[in-house]
Specification:
3% helix, 3-stranded antiparallel β-sheet, 4-stranded mixed β-sheet, single chain, 136 residues, globular, mainly beta
Length: 136
């Protein structure tokens, strides 16, 4: 069994989609704790990616073909083995209404760029925005 901790900001009336990468047959949310002062965000620089351009380095996820993805190249100031990246997505995706919040996880290494993608959007900083990145 694997347990991960995620720090997210819940917006009243806005659905939150929480994604995790793993090989388990089942996953779920066990405990929810409310903090009035969430963890400090990870300092980073971000550059929007054009999914049709070479700057995406082939990192566009296969699942983005049907619903689109807005992407960014992010470079963190500090390393984090399992960072939480939270997006605000304006568009409706499949049965999820718009706007909604989306959370993905990725490893961050200080000074090394990594691509992050928000599914269900086409244009970074227009259809979707990175709202926060935390370690954990």
């Amino acid at each position: 069994m694997r347990t991960d901790t995620r720090t997210v900001v819940l917006t009243s009336g806005t659905p939150l989609i929480l994604t995790e990468q793993g090989s388990e047959e089942w996953g779920g949310i066990r405990d929810v704790t409310c903090f009035t002062a969430p963890d400090q965000p990870v300092a980073l620089t971000r550059t929007p990616l054009d999914s049709d351009d070479e700057d995406a380095d082939g990192s566009w996820p296969d699942g983005c073909v049907d619903y689109g993805c807005a992407g960014w190249e992010v470079t963190a100031d500090t390393s984090c083995a399992s960072a939480t990246v939270q997006f605000s997505v304006d568009e409706e995706v499949a049965q999820v209404t718009g706007p909604h919040d989306l959370v993905v996880t990725t490893a961050l290494h200080a000074g090394e760029p990594v691509d992050v993608w928000a599914g269900g959007a086409w244009m970074p900083d227009e259809d979707a925005r990175i709202t926060r990145v935390t370690c954990g």
